[in-house]
Design a protein that fits this description.
single chain; mainly beta; about 110 residues; about 55% strand; globular
């Protein structure tokens, strides 16, 4: 029995999300499953109702489609959201549309195997 390959990729570090935001695209066609984490590094500038974070997939890393998995954007310092996905093809990213005036600094990591 061989040990499965495992990789953690940091795709957004100390980025301030506002308006239309997304992580860097990540090519992960070798992986069969992914757990995607998004953590708030500071309290949001405008707390309250937040955005929904969407997992997106792409055939080429340029044209994006919502995969269907979502979670709430964390708005409090160290708040963390996550999604588990399989059958995602080759490219992955997280995306969100934040309400007007809302900003949050994030760290996003993809854990793949």
């Amino acid at each position: 029995m061989s040990l499965r390959e495992n990789h953690t990729a940091v795709v957004a570090r100390n980025e301030t999300w506002a308006g239309t935001s997304a992580t860097e695209p990540y090519e992960a066609g070798w992986a069969s499953e992914a757990v995607l984490f998004l953590r708030a590094l500071e309290d949001a500038e405008v707390p309250g109702a937040g955005a929904t974070v969407r997992v997106q997939i792409s055939p080429d890393g340029m044209r994006w489609l919502d995969e269907g998995t979502t979670f709430a954007l964390p708005l409090e310092r160290d708040g963390t959201g996550c999604a588990r996905v399989r059958h995602f093809g080759n490219w992955l990213r997280l995306a969100a549309e934040l309400p007007a005036g809302q900003r949050v600094k994030v760290l996003a990591t993809f854990h793949l195997k």
